[in-house]
Amino acid sequence: MSEEYNEMDLEQSQALNVEMKEDPKKFLTFLSDGLTFAIDATNVGEIITNYPITMVPNVPSFIKGIINLRGQIIPIIDIRERMHKPPLYETTDTSCIIVLDINSTSIGIFVDAVSHVVDIYESKISPMPPNSSQELVKGMMSLTKEMVILFLDCELLLQ
Q1: Which residue in 73, 43, 44, 67 sits closest to 55, CA to CA?
Q2: Quick count: other Cβ atoms within 10 Å of Cβ 139?
Q3: What number of CA atoms fall less than 13 Å from residue 73's CA on the CB side?
Q4: Distances (CA, A) of 2 to 10, 12, 13, 141
Q5: DSSP readout, 84-131?
Q6: Contacts for 56-63 with beta carbons within 8 Å, 24 or more apart?
Q7: Which residue, 39, 63, 131, 144, shows the most beta carbons closer than 10 Å to its own?
Q8: Per residue in 88-114, pLDDT tens?
Q9: Higher-confidence position of 1 and 127
Q10: Is 85:3 a contact under the CB 8 Å cutoff?
Q11: How high is the pLDDT of residue 70?
Q12: Positive or negative CA dihedral for 91, 85, 159, 29?
């Protein structure tokens, strides 16, 4: 029995050492179609609500349109449609645009709601299983028993 206890202590100690050597990273979490996603907070420029979106003809359906934000034209991607989910037909009080700066390119993602900023150790993020249908998701982790977070690959949004 003491051998089992020592093994458990060793595992806990190793996990603690990983956390002590690694600084947590800030991630902004948001909701889309009932799922919780996270993006690196360093990519977030701002969060805007109730902003007029200008429709653009002859673009893929997941391009919701463009906005003029202080003289800068920013394309808006409907994250639901980009992930092959049905669009949100009516905006709600919580739906908003997250403006991202990815490799000096600004892009907006239209989401159902922004949740909060969380500190996460990147070593705790698991890779997506092979043959996963989540093409824009680069990892996942369980934050609580009821909550799984999917980590969005922002660079893939630009492709």
Answers
A1: 67
A2: 17
A3: 5
A4: 12, 15, 16, 31
A5: T----SS--SS-EEEEEEETTEEEEEEESEEEEEEEE-GGGPEEPPTT
A6: 61/87
A7: 39
A8: 777 888 999 999 999 999 999 999 999
A9: 127
A10: no
A11: 93
A12: positive
Q: Phi, psi (5° rounding) for residue 20? A: -75, -35
Give me 122's structure tokens. 């990147």
What would the two tokens of residue 18 be? 């990983």
Nearest residue to 27 (alpha-carbon basis) of 100, 136, 112: 100
Tell me the C-alpha distance between 81 and 77, whole Å: 8
Q: 45 is written with which tokens?
A: 């420029």
Whole-number pLDDT of residue 146: 83
